[in-house]
Amino acid sequence: MKKLITIFLLFLLMHQTSFAQYTKEDDKPKKEDKSNHSEKPFNERIFWGTGGAFSVFNRFLYLDISPFVGYKVTERLGAGFGARYSLLRDLDFQENYSNYGGSIFARYKIIPQAFLHAELEALQAYDFNFMSPNYGGRAMAYMGFVGAGYMSGSGGLSFNVLLLYDLIDHVNSPYQNAYIFGSAGMPIVSRIGVTFNF
Q1: What confidence tens digit (pLDDT) does each residue in 59-113 have?
Q2: What domains lie within the chain, and their CATH numbers?
Q3: How many angstroms separate the Cα of 140 from the Cα of each of 67, 68, 131, 136, 188?
Q4: What is the pLDDT of residues 10-61, one digit of tens each?
Q5: Which string of DSSP letters, residue by residue, matches the chain?
Q6: Largest separation between any pair of C-alpha atoms in the chain
Q7: Residue 194: is it exposed, middle or buried by C-beta count within 10 angstroms (0-12/13-18/19+)?
Q8: How much is the pLDDT for 154?
Q9: Which of 94, 26, 91, 95 is nearest to 57 (CA)?
Q10: Is the distance from CB of 92 to CB of 106 less than 8 angstroms?
Q11: How far apart are CA 72 and CA 46, in angstroms?
Q12: Are 128 and 172 in contact (CB under 8 A)?
């Protein structure tokens, strides 16, 4: 019986040491694990895109472009800044009305297809305050948007749809005629665009 136990123990010992053999694979340098977001290089953490619109309605032509660039702080959280230019052209009277400015924003992915969005935007627009001595002239407009977006795509390129509520609802906001429920309704706007690498 002692011989049997000794043979069994020797067999176990040889079996365990066989897994610890040296191989040439041990000399190869280990590849860096890029799954940890904090180790990703700077250029892989940058995302960018644009929103835009084009329409002709009644006697007006409307163009809008809003490029942006952001940085992924974590795999889910990104922040950045953008620019916006919009043009409204009265086709009958050949007059142009333009708005331009910039914004800062943050996005947080809830799931891979949906994200929360917050944005502060300042635009050089027009003074719509009837009580202002500068009525009809150039004036600043400030918007504070909060809302959510949905994105769909592959290969890093996604198409986005956002619904945003303007917390400020500034009197000079150029979005008032674009509110989903009309200019007298709740200050909710929709946006579409494309994003790469978010």
Answers
A1: 888 899 999 999 999 999 999 999 999 998 888 888 899 999 999 999 999 999 9
A2: 43-196 (2.40.160.20)
A3: 20, 21, 16, 12, 20
A4: 444 444 444 445 455 555 555 544 456 567 898 999 999 999 888 887 788 8
A5: -HHHHHHHHHHHHHHHHHTT---GGGGSPPPP-TTSGGGS-GGGGEEEEEEEEEEEETTEEEEEEEEEEEEESSSSEEEEEEEEEEEEEETTTTEEEEEEEEEEEEEEEEETTEEEEEEEEEEEEE---TT-TTTTSEEEEEEEEEEEEEEEEETTEEEEEEEEEESS--TT-TTGGG-TT-TTS--EEEEEEEEE--
A6: 110
A7: middle
A8: 85
A9: 91
A10: no
A11: 6
A12: yes
Q: For residue 28, give the amino acid letter.
A: K
